[in-house]
Amino acid sequence: MLCALVATAAVMVQCVPSLAELKDHRARADGLWLSPTVEWHASLGIASVAKCDVVHVGAFGRWIAPADLVPKQLRPRLEAIAADDAQLLLAIVAAVFIAHVLRPGWLFLRHFAASAEALRAGRYWSLVLAAFAHDDLMHVGFNFMALSRAAPALQGRLKHDRTTFWCFVLLAAVASSLASVFGRSTTGYTETKGASGIVFAMMAHAAATNPAAPMFVYGMEMPAATALVAMLAIDVLVRSSRGIDYACHAGGALFGLAFYEYYKLY
């Protein structure tokens, strides 16, 4: 999974020199660094080298561009995915689910589920990672379909500003995960997973932007503001029989509304 994400991120840039050009090149301090204190580790890190705007990973002057490890026939498709934030978000969700299916184990149980226990242990990153993890095909399927509609719409409302889009996604993940953790006494959940909090944040942002815009709830068309209220009400009504984490959804929705109020000021 990590290799796939690194490769996808690497092809987001356009200029990738060959490995031969980098073979004996020493590190240049013109990029992002992980700064060890031992002098002979000075070239260890991640940097932009050889005067090229591309990320390389390496140590001791031996640098590799991860994009060079991707088969050439796959690069155009990966570049297209990486250039589109909505597609990249869907690709990350799919990659995490596939990795979970292929290699289930302690890594996902420990780091990809948000809970009070995880926070007490200092695993704060689980608030974000949990939003990209799903337990089964139905869970990821519903969220994937919802994101495939909501994410491109959010892109348009944010005028395709990549930084703002990813700030929205990551902060929505944190807000919905925290809401779920603090609401566990009423929901009965000990942990939370899934992108539904992000979906509800996007729905709330859409409803705040244009309350009268058409939105579908279980096949029925209604104004976006009505649809959001209806979805949250359904969550509360069926939470016990369907196992719905309504605190997560409500937290995501509240974040979406708050983000709209903040963003419109600028």
From TrEMBL:
| Residue ranges the record marks as coiled coil | none
Signal peptide annotation: 1-20
Give the membrane topology: Multi-pass membrane protein
Q: Report keywords, A-Z.
A: Hydrolase, Membrane, Signal, Transmembrane, Transmembrane helix
Gene Ontology BP annotations:
signal peptide processing
Positions of transmembrane segments: 86-103, 123-142, 163-183, 215-234, 246-263
Any matching Pfam family: Rhomboid
Q: Which GO terms describe its molecular function?
A: serine-type endopeptidase activity
Which residue ranges does the record assign to the Peptidase S54 rhomboid domain?
A: 122-259
Instruction: Give its localization.
Output: Membrane
- Family according to the record: Belongs to the peptidase S54 family.
For this entry, the protein name equals Peptidase S54 rhomboid domain-containing protein
